[in-house]
From TrEMBL:
This is Chorismatase FkbO/Hyg5-like N-terminal domain-containing protein. It comes from the Bacteria. InterPro entries: FkbO_Hyg5-like_N, RutC-like_sf. Gene3D superfamilies: RutC-like.
């Protein structure tokens, strides 16, 4: 039912209409000028850099169901009988009632998503992707990531959604510029949240990390068309609730993968028939500093293996002391573009598919 694929932005821009009929939506990691303009396709253009030598790439989610495009205010979406993918971009404007611009934009973006899903009859959001500039910067007397967390939680509460327990998987990364970008994948099937026994659940973080805890689970588990699928949130070198291995990108990468292994093991415990080992997932790896790319690639390949799909990108991470963040998914099909992004292949080869 669901397939993950990766395509060069330039190829997607020149795709024939029939080639996109099964595309639910996606995210292009490219400056707006380099991203394809496809009005009927919910496709974010996020200004996040690819490694040197790799062309800008688009993450594409395909679906075997007949799909229909739609718009709801600023949201563009496509939906089938069981799945909906949407995206929204909002500029930051002055907030009301003392809200910061980012807090207000986040609350408005999430509120519009929940209103759409309520209207369309979708039960659960499986996964959110969030990107906005200067994620670690201090503005309006607080860190911007903390402002984002306040706006996100306010929207959850305003629409009657739980902020602990069964909450979606998510990531939040820093872009090089532009508005707040939000993409989401929703399903009519029920979501089961998965937590990591090595970590405090993010929604239970102490007040030291901000006035509101981050509203996400470590992973989301769903059964679609008889297939168990896992969506692992952005995962970093955090044990308990504390950052480990400050300044050591190799150790942070290993610790991040240990956390993903723990989440995958917990998911496998719940669904013994599924295969969610480290070598059975597809990955997106965000690296803060370009000079750390080679180290992260090497540790990743040694730990996970050479024949897994892994896309590497350059982005700021939600904590200033974190150098790498890794997200993953499994149980769905992989398209030929995704299969080309194997860790044993050079990035130039990966985007020539």
């Amino acid at each position: 039912m669901l397939q993950l694929d990766y395509l060069p932005a330039s190829r997607l821009a020149h795709a024939r209409p029939g080639e996109l009929a099964d595309v639910l939506g996606g995210i292009c990691f490219a400056p707006r000028a380099a991203a394809p303009v496809l009005p009927d396709l919910p496709l974010l253009a996020v200004d996040i850099a690819s490694p040197p030598g790799q062309a800008p790439v688009c993450e594409i989610w395909r679906c075997s169901e007949p799909l229909e495009p739609g718009r709801a205010g600023a949201i563009r979406y496509r939906e089938g009988a069981n799945l909906l993918f949407g995206c929204v971009e909002l500029d930051e404007a002055a907030g009301d009632d003392g809200k910061t611009p980012l807090q207000a934009a986040t609350e408005a973006a999430y509120g519009s998503v929940f209103a759409l899903l309520e209207a369309r009859g979708y039960r659960d959001v499986l996964r959110f992707w969030n990107y906005f500039p200067a994620i670690n910067a201090e503005h309006h007397a607080s860190e911007r990531y903390r402002q984002f967390n306040v706006g996100r939680q306010d929207a959850f509460l305003a629409h009657g959604h739980a902020v602990i327990g069964t909450v979606p998987a998510a990531c939040a990364l820093g872009s090089a510029g532009g508005p707040l970008h939000l993409a989401f994948l929703a399903a009519r099937a029920p979501l089961a949240s998965v937590e990591n026994p090595r970590q405090v659940s993010a929604y239970h973080y102490p007040d030291a990390y901000g006035p509101r805890s981050p509203t996400f689970s470590r992973a989301g588990l769903v059964r679609l068309d008889g297939q168990d699928m896992l969506f692992v949130s952005g995962t970093a070198s955090i044990v308990g609730h504390e950052t480990l291995h400050r300044g050591d990108v190799a150790a942070q990468t290993r610790e991040s993968l240990c956390n993903i292994a723990a989440v995958a093991a917990e998911a496998a415990r719940r669904t013994p028939s599924a295969r969610f080992g480290l070598d059975a997932l597809a990955y997106k790896v965000y690296v803060r500093r370009v000079e750390d790319l080679a180290t992260v690639r090497d540790v990743f390949a040694r730990t996970v293996g050479a024949d897994v799909t892994a896309v590497f990108l350059l982005a700021d991470v939600c904590r200033a002391d974190l150098l790498v963040e890794i997200e993953a998914s499994g149980g769905h099909a992989l398209g030929p573009g995704a299969q080309a992004f194997l860790t044993r292949r050079p990035p130039c080869a990966a985007v020539s598919v």
